[in-house]
Design brief:
heterodimer; A: alpha+beta; Thiol Ester Dehydrase, Chain A; 5 strands; B: alpha+beta
């Protein structure tokens, strides 16, 4: 079920999404995005680069943003823009909580603007904005 | 060479704006957009959107057929990695020719790299079988700025993905900070 443009209003909260980023989650994301940089799967290499452990790659951070948006809006929502500022890295066994708020709704173009952030206990992993296009009518599927 | 003054760092950085990052020609994905890679991606991120993996649902939906996750764009054009030696190459999936445009900053001591911003714009979703290519061009390089991790230059580049008809399907602005690491506290 996908939200229609008439179902959303400025100030609405997006459904929060929580990721428990184990080492498996981080490595699975790096390889599924075809990012073989050793800092994303090899702890000894990451330490040699001054990091305390492996950390999530940016392609994975973007992937979770798109999942967060369509988990909330529904599968037929079109992701038009995802603009993020990167903050603290995601190391293994961090809990990453995605939250967001609708900041603008334009019915004529069926577009919704939202802010989003992904926070960890070390601070914000990312903050940003996104634009989605929603159907004018509620989808039947 | 003429007897002119050697170029300043600022002049050399200015000259980089508008130049390609990586190969001069477009990067083409080693494989077309395909279901196995999409399924692998959806499983890794536990993204249950049926538009990516359920053909019957997708056919009945406004998409009409399976679509690739929009922010998978980058994944399609990454080169097939040469695993042997990847750590020695600093993580680069393949051998790079020369130091690339950012070598100018490395040579000037701005050896640290920190990713700062990513801004994706999606024009349309891709379908199975499509082949995408991408070109990346340096958009801007800031003057030297003080940051909490040391002095540095913000470098922004824009990658543009095109389909086989040369139509733009998406863009990504990516910004990094190239910085001079400050000495660690004693």
């Amino acid at each position: 079920m996908t939200l229609s443009i008439h179902d959303v209003a400025e100030g609405d909260a997006l459904t929060p999404m929580v990721i428990v980023a184990t080492a498996t989650v981080i490595v699975a994301g790096a390889l599924a995005t075809r990012d073989f940089m050793p800092v994303h799967h090899d702890k000894a290499y990451a330490e040699s680069q001054g990091a305390p452990d492996i950390f999530m790659n940016i392609l994975s951070s973007n992937a979770y943003c798109s999942r967060f948006l369509t988990d909330w809006a529904g599968p037929e929502a079109l992701v038009r823009r995802v603009a993020i500022r990167l903050g603290v890295p995601v190391f293994p066994n961090s809990t990453v909580t995605f939250t967001g708020t609708v900041t603008a709704v334009e019915v004529a173009t069926a577009t919704v603007e939202v802010t989003l952030q992904a926070s960890t206990d070390m601070g914000d992993h990312l903050t940003g904005t996104a634009v989605l296009r929603l159907p004018h009518e509620a989808a039947s599927s | 060479m003429t007897s002119a003054e050697p170029e300043s760092l600022a002049q050399r950085l200015e000259a980089l704006v508008g130049t390609p990052v990586g190969p001069a020609g477009p990067s083409v994905g080693p494989d077309p957009v395909n279901q196995p890679m999409i399924r692998h991606w959806a499983a890794a991120f536990e993204d249950a959107n049926p538009a990516y993996t359920d053909p019957a649902w997708a056919e009945a939906s406004s998409f009409g057929e399976i679509v690739a996750p929009p922010l998978m764009l980058q994944t399609w054009i990454l080169p097939t990695p040469v695993i042997t030696g990847i750590a020695q190459r600093g993580g680069s999936p393949v051998e790079l020719e020369g130091s690339g445009p950012l070598g100018v900053l490395d040579d000037a001591g701005f050896v640290g790299t920190l990713a700062s911003n990513s801004e994706f714009e999606i024009e349309r979703y891709l379908h199975l079988g499509e082949v995408v290519s991408a070109t990346t061009v340096i958009e801007s390089i800031s003057p030297e700025k003080r940051t909490r991790i040391g002095p540095g230059h913000f470098v922004s580049w824009v990658t543009t993905w095109r389909d086989e008809a040369n139509e733009v399907v998406g863009r990504q602005m990516f910004r990094i900070l190239k910085f001079k690491p400050e000495l660690a506290e004693p």
